[in-house]
Fold:
Amino acid sequence: MHATLPLMRQYGFPALRRSRLETLQVNLGYKCNQSCLHCHVNAGPTRTEMMSPEVLADVLTLVKVSSVKNLDITGGAPELHPQFRDLVSRGRELGLRVIDRCNLSILLEPGQEDLAEFLADRRVEVIASLPCYTEELVDRQRGKGVYEKSIRALRRLNALGYGAPGSGLELNLIYNPQGASLPPSQEQLEKDYKRELGERCGVAFNRLFTLANMPIQRFGSTLVSKGRFNEYMGLLHAAHRDENLASVMCRSLVSVDWQGYVYDCDFNQMLDLPLSLEGRRKLRVSELIGRDLSGNAIAVRDHCYGCTAGQGSSCGGALA
Structure:
């Protein structure tokens, strides 16, 4: 695996500062039932990292006493964590909007047969990866047979009311480009997804989020191996739009890794580029309890152009 952080100082991304904290994004670990080519987490079936009960307790304490409104749960496949369901239930009891970043095929894994029903009963928002609406391209990026499993999982969610108008059960999909290019128009691609998935598979969903591929971890290393890293970084830099800076997710989000260390975003977490207060050492989530992060400087490097290029990109899709 090629390290990409040392290559991230060519352009000098603009300085950013935090606003009010609204979202806590919690990475429960890197174990996953898939190994996707675009994965910026480098997750997979052989990974063993899992968040401890002590760190989970600190996460819940922070959301109780802070301005956090959204609990965004990710991984790996976060559902594989033994305390995933408890965290979801506790978050909902606290009145939080709880998001499960789901790879869809996990709904069909042994031991997860009732997972879809659990998510629906707790009224959890599902944000599901589906990098294309065709079988060939999905299987190329995510593994043979993943498309078929994803469609089966989407139908199961639809049967429970997910994606239906007025149900309150949000089902949103995520698109990633197949390679070193920017995502197309989110608005137009959403129309294409709804038409194709509806006509071909009878599948419905609420919104499509388009995300740029980040030049880090597995995807970044592949770019380096192919000699295309600088080309892709040049594309991101050339497409930068200053107006996107006001809406980037790191201004209102904190990312927590499986060990409890905190970062300005999930991408910084994967680069081990931690959130800091007044130049202090790497901080744990427990050390944020009772602190106001407003105005704090955000750690930036050139990969941040992936969030501001073109229409912009974040965990909630396009910014423009």
